[in-house]
Amino acid sequence: MSNPPDLKEFTLPELEQLMTIWGHPPYRARQVLKWVYKGVNDFEAMTDISRAFRQELARRAYLSDLRIDREQVSRDGSRKYLLALEDGNCVESVLIPEEGHYTLCLSTQVGCALGCRFCATARRGLVRNLTAGEMLNQILTVRRHFTGDWPITNLVFMGMGEPLANFPALVRALTMITAEWGLNFSPRRLTVSTAGLAPLIPRLGQEARANLTVSLNAPDDETRSRIMPINRRYPLETLLQACRDFPLPRHRRVTFAYVLLKGINDAPAQARQLARLLRGFRAKINLIPLNAYGDVPFEPSPEDRVLEFQDILRQANYTVLTRESRGQDIQAACGQLLGERE
């Protein structure tokens, strides 16, 4: 006997088809999804649906959920959630306070296969991909649990895993998040970050709606290959051409993230090289001083070197932000997510 379907994995057209197969009118799908995206996990709570239909749903389907295994709160207000999946694996999501709102950082995989040498997640290797429902459940679980004064208005796929390596489930999740029958998030408030799976970058812009961030981290192939093995497969020329092919809406920019590693990629000459490399892009550059953890084989760039690097790029007329590291005291900052129980 096959497992009952998880209704959180369905798009509206798919659920309408299922309702028809079960002998119900298609409009029942909207009734059910309205409750799903409110975060309800019990069919009995769907109070505008007949009791007989609620009982049928409980017999024939189920609603998946995540369990908060651990929550840690940083001095700066950031919150890291260790979320237990139904198979016993865990992922981490981070809730980041901004001015008047929150940003939620989402995971797409348990572990990661890309092996970036400054990233904690890479040390686990890839365990498995998340489903679209598991990505959605991170949002619903945190939103249900956290009752802060500000809303969660921004979502970033920058947690554990390489989002584009889980492309079909990512696109499905983005559809669920942006659809009017789903969470109805504005695509302007969604960001997908990639370490550089070049062939999938244009496809992301064709098949989904979200902002693009590319984790660049070096202005030359030799340095980038040393710290990001994916560069050996898709070197900078290939990666940047893929970024040019990304269908960028008017008044939008590609963000290039650059983790600064002391003595590796933070020299003034490398800043000038980066400025030349990105010439012609509608680009924003986020500088991220390394968030050290454990025995990571790198050190953060000193503040004076960060400021000098930033100033060179600004003089070249780029919009440059040095991203404040949030949640470092709870290992919740960029590159620190591991997703393992202690």
Provide a descriptive summary of the structure in words.
This protein is α/β, with parallel strands linked by helices and 342 residues long. It has 2 domains: 7-60, DNA polymerase, domain 1 (Orthogonal Bundle), CATH 1.10.150; 67-330, TIM Barrel. It is 32% helix and 20% strand. It has a 10-stranded mixed sheet with strand order 1-2-3-4-7-8-9-10-11-12, with helices on one face. It has a two-stranded antiparallel ribbon with strand order 5-6. A hairpin with a 2-residue loop joins β3 (90-98) and β4 (101-105). α4 (132-145) crosses α5. The mean pLDDT is 93.
Report the span from N to C terminus. Answer: 37 Å
CATH topology of the largest domain: TIM Barrel
Total count of domains: 2
Tally of alpha and pi helices: 11
CATH architectural arrangement of the largest domain: Alpha-Beta Barrel
Secondary-structure element series: HHHEEEEEEHEHEHEHHHEHEHE
What is the CATH class designation of the largest domain? Alpha Beta
**Mean residue pLDDT:** 93
Poorly predicted runs are none
Shape: elongated
Radius of gyration: 21 Å
Helix content: 25-40%
Find the CATH superfamily of the largest domain: Aldolase class I
Oligomer: single chain
